[in-house]
Amino acid sequence: xxxxxxxxxxxxxxxxxxxxxxxxxxxxxxLDAENKIKExxxxxxxxxxxxxxxxxxENNEIYEKSxxxxxxxxxxxxxxxxxxxxNNLCNVIVxxxxxFGGILLGTGGLVRSYSGAASGSIERANIITIDIGTEFEIMxxxxxxxxxxYYCQKNNINITSKKYEENVNCHxxxxxxTKEKFLEDIKNKHLNIINYKELNTKYIKKLGDL
Length: 210
Prior knowledge:
Layout: E1 2-5, E2 9-15, E3 18-26, H1 30-43, E4 49-58, E5 61-67, H2 77-86, E6 92-99, H3 106-124, E7 127-140, H4 142-154, E8 158-164, E9 168-175, H5 176-187, E10 195-205
Antiparallel strand pairs: 1-7, 2-3, 3-6, 4-5, 4-6, 7-9, 7-10, 8-9
Helix pairs in contact: 2-3
């Protein structure tokens, strides 16, 4: 289980005429992160520095990377990475762009400014929880579908697709704790389902955190 962001956010602050622009961006993988770095360096090509930090889940392991992009070592990338770690954020990259204002900030001032900009972008974000779950394919008749929808809503089971044919065919996703209750309710006939098939394991949004 980890936390990520629902939407990208931006936050700006000015310190002694230097402008710091923080962009907090959702990423899928390492390649996505590196492409975002190139994209924002191109967007802010006239800036003095584009420092970044990111954490991403790949092959069931969290990969981390940060860069000071020419700032004194440890004054930008590491403090921002520390913020992502403390907030248990993953599959995100924070890129902080600095336009130099002509006044040196010192190492302490740089750490405060980069951390402050990154922190501001995190505070603006809608944080959601991602958990390991399971996707199912369900077949159910029309007479019982409304009750099934209510059951899903009550138990934080997400119906991701619906097809109205001879019966209703839908896909659902559930975290693994709810999955056990769901299977038990089918077994005990508390749910009137014609057929179901377990499809695959996937990372899912915990609906209660939206």
